[in-house]
Each structure stands twice: as structure tokens, then as C-alpha cells.
Design goal:
Elements lengths: L5 E2 L7 E4 L3 E7 L5 E7 L9 E5 L5 E2 L2 E7 L8 E7 L48 E2 L23 E4 L1 H5 L12 H6 L1 H7 L3 E4 L3 E3 L6 H5 L10 E7 L12 H14 L3 E6 L16 H9 L25 H18 L3 E4 L18 H8 L7 E4 L19 E3 L1 H11 L6 H8 L3 H4 L9 E4 L8 H4 L35 H20 L3 E5 L28 H4 L1 H15 L23 E4 L15 E6 L9 E6 L5 E4 L8 E6 L21 E4 L3 E7 L1
Parallel strand pairs: 10-11, 10-19, 11-14, 14-15, 15-16, 16-17, 17-18, 18-19
Antiparallel strand pairs: 1-7, 2-3, 3-7, 4-5, 4-8, 6-7, 8-9, 12-13, 20-21, 21-22, 22-26, 23-25, 24-26
Helix pairs in contact: 7-8, 9-10, 13-15
């Protein structure tokens, strides 16, 4: 292939920007002394067909190195890497190596998926054999057909946390392209039937599938979850039908557009707290070789070492001005170019750490994300803690930011498994965690309520295992959280005991019912609605196999749980009183004249706030809209069946809507099939949730 002519180029924007006249390449590096651009004819070419040496007098402006390659329009399927040289003083925090080919931090598409190589991990290999490569893409003419981000009201959201690959990789999925963005499109009718309004996708930015311990890699495992990002502008090539064609952008857009047409928002789980480059022994992929000092937190006493607030070997220095700019530009790109509706930030508390590593409330990157015009209508969700001990649930900087409510998760787990004396805090969690959010002027929708997520037991494993069983991960069961608040209901793991199986099903229903009855934003882990199990493995980050994948035979096999979840979602969505934008106060409702919430114990208006043995809580919620029903909710996690009174109503009567102690179809009764209750007291089985609607 003939070499291209080139000229100085310009410093904006970063990455490779193709146009009709050619392509501008730009990379940032504060301390680089020499930079080369290597061009490959094809993604799999063994050698570059052209190497361009950038002249610092011509091709450098401030921190940016740039060159314009004339006549390269992006339609040529050309790939490229960088080589960067600079100070060789590792002790001072520099990790320049002119022999290593580096992936462009601004890459719009990467091509690392088809070669099982140790990317820049083995210095004995020839550099071309170990380099990940970026692709030059043409200007996009994608037809969005009028699509825009949905901007749904958060109080009406039902979030479904799911893995793009794992959702359709199982042989039972029967999609045309398993494990891809395209596969998700084929399963949208399932999401609609369930009642989902938003999907929260585990990382879809390009990540290193080889980022895991050597012993796990030796077992043939790979990084499945994707919390090892290296390219913050590129969709992961492993989720594309044909990653070598450069179709990354359009395949992802097709999925987003299809989900939006179905009324489903797209929230991305993003990882700006660390990268795939790990610690001292980790690979050199891009940031280490371009701007190690600045991009990462380094130890003050020894800059050759990395501070590790992430638990993954390195920590991104998010509030360095250039890094903060990089993060915000990346987020804005996904909203502008891909129409995503929001972001969930993994270990978000790291973004609240200043350049010295200390927490700071007015962290520039967090507040600039909050005030960005481009991000003004996106959902912002923080995992408000990190591995360095910073825990900010209820106190994460900013006002728009919702939080994964870890305190809600733990409390509900404890209550359902039968722990005593929790009813006072449970009432607070059910009504939006006012103790965490009200005093700072935030709302119930700042609380994302969840019981399970990708990290930990599935909901069925929560009621089937007391202990984690992670031997398949190759770390002798050392990995994964030991603090699960689970209860196996009498037998560890799988069992043929029908009584225990029935009790487990009831407990899972209890969890799902409580989640849907709570003020705030509910989040369901994909598969919990069909009793998906991971055989007690609570850390399936490396299990890209049937242990993690969604088994599409389960919706039929466990249709009772699927039906229960679907109908609980429907119940929630027809009750505005469960989707409040303001905290409940006990004041009278203008619609019903009743208090917006009344609390009870075994007796009416007698909640057992100070009883250390109590495991029973009931409440009455007033209707908010004229055509809505009042709700009376009873949560009995004691070991006893109880006779409990119903509140008296004027010109209305109570109708049984939900009873988790009953089998399908009596567990959730459609409104038109509900029967009025004539008795003043009702029987409530042990370990059950019962709901009445008034008409």
C-alpha cells in the first residue's frame, strides 16, 4: 500500500477524525519527547505500511501531538497504533517505552477481539504481535429516524441490570447472533412483557478479556463482566457481529434505537475508576505509555507504585484537569453519538478523590458532569463507595446523582431472612431512605433500591446458600464477598425437598414484592425473575459460560416466578402512591383524606418501633390519584401465622391483591378478579407479604 502524504494537523479533537479531505490524528502526552503513528492496511496486518514520525516543532501543541493524513477518509479499513517515547525514569512515575505499540485512548473502534494474545504482556514477543489497534472510521451518516434519548421520569423506572453477551449466548436463546448487541434486539419483546422501562448494561466500552489472575487464565477463563475498560469511546468488539468491519457504532446504535422504540431507556455501567492496565505488573495498553504520571494516582513516597483505591491495581486520577476533561468528553460522546439515557458509575467514590487521594465534596469532575449541558437530562447513578474504604451512600456529591442504596440492600436481606428488631429502619428504607437524602434536599428517586446485582448471589442463590461456592474461579474460594446476608432455608444448595423448594420460592417472592413496594427506583438483576442460579458462585466475573448466561428455558420452567414479577411490576406502575417524588410525612391526602402513610404492627397504629424481637410491619398508603386504590401492606417475616386487623374504610372495601404464601394464580390477583374482604381481620402466613387494594 502506498504511503499517504501528511501535514501538521491540529490538536482537536482527540483520536482519529476522518473527513472527505483526510484524517486528523491526535493524542495527548504531557512529557513525551517523540511520537510515531503506525498505520496498518488491515486490522490483522503483520507490519505497518507507513510509520509517521511526528516533529515536535510542527506536530505538537501544548500537551497534544497531532498529524493530518491527507486522503484517508476512513473507508479504507485502516488500523493504527502509537509509539511514544519520553523520560525513562520509572522511579519518577514515567513508563514510556518506544518499543511498545499503544492503543489510542480516543479510539472510536478497536480490533483486539480475534487474537488470543497477551497484549503487551510478554516483552519477548515482537511488538506487532502484541498490539491492540484502533480503526479509522468514516464520518457517520447513521439514520436515527428521529430517535432521541427518552428522558423518562425516574420515579416510573423499572431498571433491569443485564449483561449484553450473557443475555443471549446460551444455546436456548435461539437468536441469529448470540452474545451481541443485535441479539438484545430480538429479546426486546421479553423485556416488554416483563414490564422493564430501562436496561442497565454491564460495561459495553471496549475492555480486556484477558484481565484476570494468571490462575484463572490458565483455566481458560476470561474477564466476562467487562470491568477492565481500555477504550472509553469504542463499543466492545466482542459484542459486534463483525468487529473487523468497523460496524461497532452502528450495531450499538441499532440496539439503542430499537430499545427506545419499545419505550426502554439505556443506562451504561461505566468504569472510570481504574483501567485494564492494572498495577506495576499489569500490561501497557495506552495510558501507562502515554501519560502514566497524571492519569493514575501514584504513591507519594514512591511514584513507581500505584495507589489502589479500586482494588484492581490502579486508580484513575479523575480530578486531574486533563483526565476530568477526558472523562466528561467520553460521557458526552456516548450521549451525543449513541443517544444513551444515563450512566451508572462503578466505584464512583473514586471520582470524589482529589489529586492527593483525599475525599473532596466539590470534586470538579463530579460537579462538571452534573452541570454539563450535554448530560443535562441523563440519569446519573453512583455506586457510592470504593475499595479504599470511602463509603458515601447518602452523601455522594451532587444533587442529580442517584445512588445504589447499599443500606437498603443489606436491610431487606436481613429482614426477609428473619433477623429481628429491624422494622424501624425497614420503614425508612421502604419510604425512600429519608434519613439519607431528605436533609440535603434530595428526593426518594435518589435511591436506587436493589437486593441483588451482578456482584454477589442471584436472588435464588440468596435463599439457597449460606456460603459462597467460588471454586470454579481458580482462587480457592478466596474471591467474592463473605458478607452476603443469605439464608439457605435449611439445606445448602440444590435440593429435591419440595417443602424447602416451595419455601425458597416464597422467599424470592417476598424479596421481589418488597422491592416493588418501596419508594425510590427499583433495580432487578436479569434472571432473578426466573429463579436463575449460579450454583452459589457470588463472583462470576470470569465465567463466560452457562453458569452466568441467561437460560431461556427458565421463563417456562419457572413461569410462576416470572408471572409474579411481571404482575408486581404492573401493580407498582398502576399505583402512583408507590412512585412518589416527595417523601411521605403522614399528612392527609387531598384525594382520600387519609394520611399519606400510616404504620402498624400486629395491631392497627401500633408499629413495634422499639421491640427488639419484632419481625412484623404493616402500613397503609393513601391513593394519590382519583382513580387509584389505597394500599394496605403487611410484611410478616416471623415464624408465626398471624391474625391481623384491616383498617376501616368509608364507602370502600379491601380486596386481596397479593399473597406470597399462595401458589399461582392466587399469589397475584388481577384487579378484575379480586374479591372484597368482608372480615375485619385477615390471616397472614409466616414469612409472607400480603397486599390489599381498596375500592
Amino acid at each position: 500500500m502506498k504511503p499517504y502524504p501528511f501535514n501538521a494537523g491540529h490538536r482537536y479533537p482527540a483520536g482519529a477524525t476522518a473527513g472527505d479531505e483526510g484524517t486528523n490524528f491526535c493524542v495527548f502526552s504531557r512529557h513525551a519527547s517523540a511520537v510515531q503513528l503506525l498505520l496498518y492496511e488491515k486490522p490483522g496486518s503483520g507490519r505497518p505500511f507507513q510509520i509517521i514520525d511526528l516533529d515536535p516543532a510542527i506536530n505538537r501543541t501544548f500537551f497534544f501531538w497531532h498529524v493530518f493524513v491527507e486522503g484517508m477518509t476512513g473507508r479504507e479499513n485502516i488500523s493504527y497504533t502509537w509509539k511514544v517515547d519520553g523520560p525513562g525514569n520509572v522511579e519518577a512515575g514515567f513508563r514510556f517505552d518506544p518499543a511498545v505499540e499503544l492503543l489510542d485512548p480516543g479510539a472510536r473502534a478497536v480490533t483486539d477481539i480475534l487474537w488470543q494474545r497477551k497484549y503487551n504482556r510478554d516483552p519477548q514477543q515482537e511488538p506487532p504481535a502484541t498490539s491492540m489497534r484502533a480503526m479509522v472510521l468514516p464520518e457517520s451518516d447513521y439514520d436515527w429516524q428521529g430517535d432521541e434519548p427518552l428522558q423518562q421520569s425516574p420515579e416510573k423506572e423499572i431498571i433491569y441490570e443485564m449483561h449484553v453477551g450473557g443475555f443471549t449466548r446460551h444455546p436456548t436463546s435461539e437468536v441469529a447472533h448470540p452474545g451481541t448487541f443485535s441479539g438484545i434486539i430480538e429479546k426486546i419483546p421479553y423485556l416488554q412483557e416483563l414490564g422493564i422501562t430501562a436496561v442497565e448494561l454491564l460495561p459495553v466500552m471496549a475492555f480486556d478479556e484477558q484481565d484476570l489472575p494468571d490462575n484463572a487464565r490458565d483455566l481458560g477463563l476470561k474477564n466476562y463482566w467487562g470491568y477492565a475498560t481500555h477504550s472509553f469511546y469504542s463499543p466492545h468488539p466482542g459484542y459486534c457481529i463483525n468487529p473487523l468491519s468497523g460496524s461497532h457504532r452502528d450495531e450499538f446504535r441499532d440496539m439503542v434505537k430499537a430499545l427506545h422504540r419499545a419505550g426502554i431507556s439505556v443506562i451504561l455501567d461505566v468504569v472510570y475508576n481504574h483501567t485494564a492496565e492494572g498495577g506495576v505488573d499489569g500490561p501497557v495498553i495506552n495510558f501507562k505509555g502515554i501519560m502514566n504520571r497524571g492519569f493514575y494516582h501514584l504513591e507519594d513516597h514512591d511514584p513507581s507504585q500505584y495507589k489502589n483505591y479500586s482494588g484492581c491495581g490502579n486508580t484513575v486520577n479523575c480530578n486531574h484537569p486533563l483526565v476530568a476533561r477526558f472523562i466528561i468528553r467520553s460521557l458526552e460522546y456516548w450521549v451525543r453519538e449513541f443517544h444513551v439515557d444515563g450512566f451508572r458509575f462503578d466505584l464512583a467514590s473514586i471520582m470524589a478523590r482529589g489529586e492527593d487521594g483525599a475525599p473532596m465534596y466539590h470534586a470538579p469532575v463530579i460537579w462538571n458532569i452534573e452541570f454539563s449541558d450535554t448530560l443535562a437530562h441523563t440519569r446519573l447513578i453512583a455506586e457510592a463507595w470504593d475499595a479504599g474504604g470511602l463509603y458515601q451512600v447518602g452523601g455522594f456529591p451532587g444533587f442529580r446523582w442517584a445512588e445504589w442504596n447499599g443500606r437498603y440492600r443489606d436491610l431487606v436481606r436481613q429482614f426477609v431472612k428473619g433477623d429481628q428488631g429491624l422494622v424501624s429502619e425497614l420503614a425508612t428504607r421502604l419510604t425512600g431512605s429519608s434519613d439519607l437524602y431528605q436533609s440535603s434536599g434530595r428526593l426518594p428517586t435518589n435511591s436506587v433500591n436493589f437486593i441483588t446485582c451482578h456482584d454477589g448471589f442471584t436472588l435464588y442463590d440468596m435463599v439457597s446458600y449460606n456460603d459462597k461456592h467460588n471454586m470454579a474461579n481458580g482462587e480457592d474460594n478466596r474471591d467474592g464477598d463473605n458478607h452476603n446476608e443469605s439464608w439457605n432455608c435449611g439445606v445448602e444448595g440444590e435440593t429435591d425437598d419440595l417443602k424447602i423448594c416451595a419455601f425458597r420460592l416464597k422467599q424470592v417472592k417476598n424479596f421481589m414484592a418488597i422491592l416493588m413496594l418501596s419508594q425510590g427506583v427499583p433495580m432487578i438483576l436479569a434472571g432473578d425473575e426466573v429463579l436463575k442460579s449460579q450454583q452459589g458462585n457470588n463472583n462470576c466475573y470470569c465465567q463466560d459460560n452457562e453458569l452466568s448466561w441467561f437460560d431461556w428455558s427458565l421463563p417456562e420452567k419457572n413461569q410462576e416466578m416470572f408471572r409474579f414479577t411481571r404482575n408486581m411490576i404492573r401493580l407498582r406502575r398502576r399505583h402512583a402512591c408507590l412512585m412518589q417524588r416527595r417523601f411521605l410525612t403522614g399528612s392527609s391526602s387531598v384525594v382520600s383524606g387519609m394520611p399519606d402513610v400510616s404504620w402498624h404492627g400486629p395491631g392497627l397504629h401500633e408499629p413495634q418501633w422499639n421491640d427488639p424481637s419484632s419481625r412484623v410491619l404493616a402500613c397503609t398508603l393513601s391513593r394519590v390519584e382519583p382513580d387509584e386504590e389505597d394500599l394496605h401492606i403487611i410484611l410478616n417475616m416471623s415464624d408465626d401465622n398471624l391474625s391481623m386487623p384491616l383498617p376501616k374504610l368509608e364507602n370502600r372495601s379491601w380486596h386481596l391483591a397479593v399473597d406470597t404464601a399462595r401458589a399461582m394464580p392466587g399469589d397475584v390477583i388481577e384487579p378484575k378478579k379480586q374479591q372484597p374482604v368482608s372480615r375485619e381481620t385477615v390471616e397472614v402466613n409466616s414469612h409472607s407479604v400480603v397486599i390489599y387494594e381498596s375500592r
